[in-house]
């Protein structure tokens, strides 16, 4: 018998049922999972809008006015409404997952999940208030 | 010899980007995508926004705000295609496209923020 093993990237094939491309439509749980994963598209949309906004600021007042008039077109309003729904969904699922991803133990016992999720929600409210204050407050 | 995976590094970008997106994107999109265009609030003037983003601490924050969520989105979208649509044979191409877009966005963000007057 040879002492060394030879690894190959291929395993012997065993019987596997073919999974449909639409497997996630069969169950509400998996559908929610795909919705959550699709929030990445909305995050990308937000990032792109932010970049265009900043770029327009470097180009002068006319470019900024053009940016604003774009955002008023029905197409962008509809996309923003949809994306806003998705980023909200991302925030909520993200904060609720935090205690599962990072369980905190105090004195050998796991803290209850809400004690880890709650500070996230507080931070969310605080950060949103800071952004609003920066943009709108203190004329 | 086992190949060292770069998954942990990508995951750190993914999770910090996800946190930033979760905290900041809803309010930003609400304001710039809905509230200002629909006239619910008066949009800040060009001069005010420019003054705001010109300060270096704000530029630094904006850099993180642009870049990290792009990596988060890229990572997640990659695995949406992988798990959801089961496009496994195009794995490399999709990874290059996703992370490549995030890197391009990061470079663009650095360029824009550097050149704010």
Describe the structure.
The complex is a heterodimer of chains A (about 140) and B (about 120). Chain A is an all-alpha fold. Chain A has a domain at about 30-100 and about 110-135: 3 helical TM bundles of succinate and fumarate reductases (Up-down Bundle), CATH 1.20.1300. Helix content of chain A is about 70%, strand content about 5%. Chain A has 4 helices and 2 strands. Chain A has helices at about 30-60, 60-70, 75-100, 115-135; strands spanning about 105, 110. In chain A, β1 (about 105) and β2 form a beta hairpin. The longest helix of chain A is centred in the N-terminal third of the chain and has 32 residues, at about 30-60. The relative contact order of chain A is 0.07. The mean pLDDT of chain A is about 85. With about 120 residues, chain B is mostly helical. Chain B has one domain (about 10-115): Up-down Bundle (3 helical TM bundles of succinate and fumarate reductases), CATH 1.20.1300.10. Helix content of chain B is about 80%, strand content about 0%. Chain B has 4 helices and no strands. Chain B has helices at about 5-35, 45-55, 55-85, 90-115. The longest helix of chain B is centred in the first third of the chain and has 29 residues, at about 5-35. The N and C termini of chain B lie far apart (about 50 Å). The model of chain B has no long low-confidence stretch (mean pLDDT about 85). At the A-B interface, α1, α2, α3 and α4 of A face α1, α2, α3 and α4 of B.
């Amino acid at each position: 018998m040879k002492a060394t093993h030879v690894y190959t990237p291929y395993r012997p094939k065993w019987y596997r049922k073919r999974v449909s491309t639409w497997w996630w439509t069969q169950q509400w749980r998996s559908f929610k999972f795909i919705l959550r994963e699709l929030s990445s598209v909305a995050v990308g949309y937000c990032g792109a809008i932010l970049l265009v906004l900043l770029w327009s600021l470097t180009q002068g007042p006319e470019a900024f006015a053009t940016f604003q008039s774009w955002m008023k077109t029905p197409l962008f309003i509809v996309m923003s409404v949809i994306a806003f729904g998705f980023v909200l969904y991302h925030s909520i699922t993200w904060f609720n997952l935090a205690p599962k991803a990072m369980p905190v133990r105090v004195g050998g016992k796991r803290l209850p999940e809400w004690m880890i999720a709650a500070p996230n929600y507080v931070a969310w409210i605080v950060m949103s208030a800071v952004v609003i204050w920066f943009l709108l407050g203190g004329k | 010899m086992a190949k060292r995976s770069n998954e942990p590094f990508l995951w750190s970008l993914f999770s910090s980007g996800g946190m930033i997106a979760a905290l900041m994107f809803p309010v930003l999109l609400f304001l710039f995508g809905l509230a200002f265009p629909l006239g619910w609030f008066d949009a800040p003037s060009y001069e005010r926004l420019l003054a705001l983003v010109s300060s270096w601490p704000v530029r630094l924050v904006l850099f993180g705000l642009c870049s990290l969520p792009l990596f988060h989105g890229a990572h997640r979208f990659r695995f949406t295609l992988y798990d959801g649509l089961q496009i496994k044979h195009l794995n490399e191409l999709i990874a290059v496209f996703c992370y490549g877009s995030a890197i391009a966005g990061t470079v663009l963000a650095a360029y824009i923020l550097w050149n704010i007057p």
